[in-house]
Amino acid sequence: MKDTEFLEDTKITKCVQCGKCSASCPAGRNSRLLTRKIIMEAKSGMDVVGREELWLCTTCFLCFERCPKGVNTVDAIIELRNRAVMEGKFPEVHVGAIEGIYDTGSGLPLSPDGIRDRSMLGLEKEPEDIARNEEDFKNFQKLIKELGLLEKVGVER
Amino acid sequence: MIGVFICHCGINIGGVVDIDGLVQKVENTTGDDVLVYQNLFVCSQAGQDLIKDKIEEEGLDRVVVASCSPKHHGAIFSKCVGEKMNPYLWEMVNIREQCSWVHRDDPEKATDKAYALIMGGIEKARKLQEIGKTSVPLTKDVLVIGGGIAGMHTSLELADKDFKVYLVEKKPNIGGNMVRLDRTFPTDDCSMCTISPKLNEVTNNPNITLFTCAEVEEVSGRPGEYKAKILKMPRYIDEEKCTGCGTCGTVCPMAILNDFDLNLAVRSAAYAPNSQAVPLKYSLDRDKCIQCGLCEVVCEADAIRYDQKEEVIEVTVGAIVLATGYEQYDLTDTEYHYEHPNVISGLELERLINSTGPTGGELKRPSDGKRPESVVFVQCAGSRDRRHMEYCSKICCMYATKNARLIKQEDPDIDVDVCYIDLRAAGRGYEEYYDAAREMGVNYIKGNVSDVIPDGDNLTVRLENTMLGEIQEINADLVVLSTALVPSEGTAKMTRSLGLVRKEDEFAAPFHMKIAPVDTANMGMFIAGTCESPKPIQECIVDASAVASRVSSFLKNDEMDIDLVTAFINPEICVHCGKCEENCVYGAITEGEDGAFVVSDISCHACGKCAANCITMAVDYRYYSDIQIEAQIDGILAADDDVIVAFCCDQCSYNAADLAGTAKKQYSPRIKIIHLPCSGRVSVNHIMYAFDKGAKGVMVAGCLKEQCHYIDGNYRAEENVEIAKKALSLMGIEAEKCEMFFMSSAMADKFVQSVTEMDVRC
After folding, report:
1. Cis omega (within 30 of 0) on the bond before B279?
2. Does any CB of chain B come closer than 8 Å to the CB of residue A26?
3. What gap in Å lies between CA B196 and CA B736, rounded to an integer?
């Protein structure tokens, strides 16, 4: 995405820096994430791609919902994260998550406790997901590979 | 002979459109009967003299001015041409707002478009006819709706000019919201002391007839002679006899929340809103009265009337003034938790610090009567917010500052914080007033409050202090929301029933924001005060004085000239079906003695629905006639073969297009606008005619639904567009090449989206 496109799509030029986003943010309340500041810096053309706090956003969309000027705050953060990944700048902890997604088809693979709980409730052992169908799962893994995501994060498969 | 005057408008048109080339092209493609001139500013005295000289020298009998929007300088040229000939024998072509400004990136195409528009104007001009006048009497009396400060001051000014005024107020007392206030910025005058003399003057002035507990139910007639039905609700107490002693109230056993105190106090069922109410006449709240009869027993004046009925009073007036004011926006069930007793609005705070309020002026919080140790003001609560009201409510920065100062002055130990996004202190003495508030210890925090969090009786206010980049949580005993000001229920109701144009935010729209701020699009109707937009008291007074002046100009003569820009019916073709009568919401069309229908020149509003929907085309217009509209289409399409015709309504989309021009928004030059009085003027024939002549697409743009200036013209247009779509399909043309759009005059973006959509489709 070009910078002009980024400004248009996220509508961050409409931002009046009121801070409703930061103060509404459940994640930012107890962390370094200040959505308003990230938006201001991105709008000013500063390099915010390497910022660790970009990864603290839980994409709950409360800031977007409350923004009085209609700034697509979450879209902006997601785009900045995309750029971060392309530049190889992202927290180490996400490598494991990507490995998990590639290997199991799920960001949160079922734990032994989860399997036990499901059987107690009389549910099938595994829920309906991408990994249940072998062909789908293969396509899914192919997709991830072709996107170059594994190379970007340095995972070998 | 037709004279075409092309304006450079300095570089506004001349900087984009090749004027020399344009002049040459028009000259080359028209006959000897068309003379073309150019001028740097045709609107200047020199430009006007040029028009007048050429009319005389060359014997011009038609004039075409190609310049800015007719909304901008139309009146100037109309007057100029009118000095030499009938003022309807000229046509204005808009090559600034709707050409050079919106196609500035493509000068060549802009020049081509200007040429096509001018050719349309020339062909239309050939078909223009002289339009005569008729005179109608003017009634000198005036109806003022709303007895707040704006309506009162308007009434007093008019009464002073010797007009008879009927002042109608819905509540039992006059004074509006201003009588609720404690003090007023930036002078800290006691509000009641300022308004009190006016309240009494209104009730005593022999030229003012005041109706309280009354509403205007219906208005009919025409400018200069409106008939209004006033519905006066019973007080169940004889107004003439009641002395205002209040004994009825003291014996009444009922306790009801008092609306005057914004439900922060109770009153009896026999009540006056407060002790200083004017007129000081009691009312019985019959919804709550148990008819115990105690009041009847104690009333020495014998004024109680359980059987009083509502009354309908009919008045005839020449002009109507709307001054129905604002109300507070309700923030219940939002992140501000207005439903919590200790989260109050600015207006409620006024009652809590007012010596005539429920606490006698002592600041106490509603839940437990505790004196708050910390008060937090939340600015822009519901204002400047796309989820609520997009506009700035204008007065909140200053009234919050005022109340913050009053609290600090009373008790410097109370912590007072004002949380704001931008502090707007524009006005004489305002900045100094704000400076002094900081000196008094009012703590201003820059940041938009995200949450007011209730914890029992107490509250926590959360925001980011954006100067520090830190999230702060402030403990507050009392939270005051500076809630948005929205049009009052009366404003919403009356703008609809008077057929006034409303802005997107539902406030009444002035005829022109800058140069006609208290006039409306309806002749003889005016607006004053906060029914137009949020504004401080002094601006309401300015409005009221301006309205009084405008009304007196409007009613200065005994008679008023009306141009006969009206519909007429050809009795030879009329088949007596009565569809035109049905379509006319003004009752201007009636059945004549021989069965043919006739139009009243006085009642006709010239919207065009009757003509557009006449099955035999017996109804037509003197101005914007079928033949003129078709000639304009001919002219444009003969000059350009790649055209999307946009029929635009004078009340909405035409202005939206002008606004897009002012904002220099760019769109396709294929769009060629045809100006009409109302989208309802568009007939199926007009649409099909445009396609027949080679238009690539046709769009009709009318007012927002429920907001047609002529009540339902946009719906008629929508129906006609639907019929045209079917006809097009039958002819093998895609129906999507014809479309109806709805927008207000403020929606420049919507206009650009709509024309862009058509550009893609066609």
Report:
1. yes
2. no
3. 62
pLDDT tens readout for residues B13-69 = 999 999 999 999 999 999 999 999 999 999 999 999 999 999 999 999 999 999 999
SS3 content of chain B, % helix, strand, coil (to 5): 35, 25, 40
Those residues whose C-beta lies under 8 Å from the C-beta of residue B458, and which sit 6 or more positions away, are: B342, B475, B476, B477
Q: How close, in Å, is residue A101 to chain B by CA atoms?
A: 35
Q: How far apart are CA B484 and CA B332, in angstroms?
A: 13
What are the backbone dihedrals phi and psi of residue A31, each rounded to the nearest 5 degrees, phi first? -145, -170
Nearest to A23 among B380, B384, B462 (CB): B462
Q: Is the dihedral of CA B153, B154, B155, B161 positive or negative?
A: positive
**B69 closest CA partner among B102, B92, B44:** B92
B422 touches chain A (CB under 8 A): yes
A68 contacts A18 by C-beta, under 8 angstroms: yes
* Interface TM-score (ipTM) > 0.90: no
The pair of structure tokens assigned to B723 is: 């019929």
Express each pLDDT in B376-413 by its tens digit.
999 999 999 999 999 999 999 999 999 999 999 999 99
Q: How many residues does chain B have?
A: 762
Searching chain A, which residue's CA lies closest to the CA of residue B379? A18
- Is residue B278 within 8 A of residue B203, CB to CB? The reply is yes
DSSP for B469-480, written as a single string: TEEEEEEESEEE
Q: Give pLDDT tens digits for B466-508.
A: 999 999 999 999 999 999 999 999 999 999 888 887 887 899 9
Contact B370, B457 (CB under 8 A): yes
Rounded CA-CA distance B370/B358 in Å is 14
Chain B interface includes A68 (CB < 8 A)? yes
Name chain A contacts of B421, Cβ cutoff 8 Å. 16, 18
Distance, CA of B216 to CA of B90 (rounded, Å): 41
Q: Which residue of B has its CA nearest to A30?
A: B471
B446 and B420 in contact (C-beta within 8 Å)?
yes
- Give B-chain residues touching A22 at CB under 8 angstroms: 450, 464, 466, 471
Q: Which residue blocks in B314-386 are alpha helix, DSSP H?
A: 346-352
- pTM of the complete model: 0.79
Q: Calculate how close chain B gets to A66, using CA atoms only, in Å.
A: 8
pLDDT digits (tens, 9 = 90+) for B545-574: 999 999 999 999 999 888 899 999 999 999
List CB contacts (< 8 A) between B462 and chain A. Answer: 23
Closest alpha carbon to B78 in B609, B623, B519, B656: B623
Contact B464 A34 (CB under 8 A): yes
CB-CB under 8 Å, A29 with B471: yes
Of residues A24, A34, A68, nearest to B385 (C-beta): A68
Question: Looking at chain A, which residue has its C-alpha nearest residue B471?
Answer: A23
**Cβ contacts of B466 on chain A, cutoff 8 Å:** 17-19, 22, 36
Out of B450, B462, B469, the one facing A66 most closely (by C-beta) is B450
Q: Which of B207, B381, B204, B224 is nearest to B317 (CA)?
A: B224
Alpha helices for chain A (secondary structure H): 3-10, 20-24, 35-43, 62-66, 73-86, 93-104, 112-120, 134-146, 149-153
Chain B closest CA to A8's CA: distance in Å? Answer: 15
**Could you tell me where the DSSP H helices lie in B179-307?**
191-204, 247-251, 294-298
Choose from B419, B463, B464 for mutation: most chain A CBs within 10 A.
B464
Q: Is A17 on the interface with B (CB under 8 A)?
A: yes
Q: Residue B404: what residue type?
A: A
Q: Do A18 and B469 count as a contact with CB atoms less than 8 A apart?
A: no
